[in-house]
Amino acid sequence: MPLASPALAQERAVQLLVGFAPGGNIDLAARMAQPFLERHLGLGPIVVVNRPGAGGMIMLNDMLGMPADGRTAALVSFPALVTPLYDNTPRYRPESFAYVGLLTDEPYTVVVGSQTPWRTLRELVAEAREKPEEIAIAGVGVGGAPHLALMGLERVAGVRFTWVPTQGAGQAMQLMQGGHVAGCVSTVSLTVRAHLQGQMRVLAMLETQRWDRAPDLPTAMEQGFDTTAGSARGFALPAATSAAMQARWEAAVRGTAEDPEFRALAERDFLIVRHMDRAAMTRFVAGQVAQYGALWRSAPWKR
Length: 303
Hints:
The protein has eleven helices and ten strands. It is globular, with a radius of gyration of 20 Å. Helix 2 links the parallel strand 1 and strand 2. By secondary structure, it is an alpha/beta fold. Helix 2 (25-41) packs across helix 9 (243-258).
């Protein structure tokens, strides 16, 4: 068979890899951004490809074998990209990727099923104190961002829950809504709307102050638990991608973040837009590596 021509090779769809299952908050963010990235990137169709497993590590490892032609990118999440460096053996390193722009950053919430008795985080913690490891809380992966968020609450509250790892945030919410676990940890974009519709109950936002989009939701801090946690998401390419292609992606991420239509959709779906360019995102990643490396050395998460 003759080799395909370069022109034909360029016609293949651009792949946007997501390291989590469909229906979760990261997957939904990718699918919301996809048509806008497609519009501003100008390389043709963009297809979202889910490669779930190991808290996103499988997809990140797969990125190492992808061509550095700008036609394969990943929606990466923090601190999920960083935490496997300390409690696992990923093939990738932080410098394996070129970081072309952060798009969103939002706090985690502690949520329980509508059938549960707890109305406040204090009530949940009080029962967990009486029943160590009997209350099951679900979320993505082991040692990833949602797990760390719950562990932060456990440390300041002096309690222990039972963590139930899932492949995606959507699966965690399904387990909770089905009564298989008491609650879950996920971001505001996935939980606040369901809370307002009475489908589940947000007990606390893991943020320093209340959010003006949902001012009735208390923070963990105002309930006496000094802990915060969130999830930031942006785009990465293989490190060997040309500077010109990196700049093209950087412009597309900026164009998406500033697109009035995208911002309106983000507002509608409780998605918090926080844009960083290439340089700022690269510094952000370095800060995450330093922060979670120090945490690992002082108090290992794996238990």
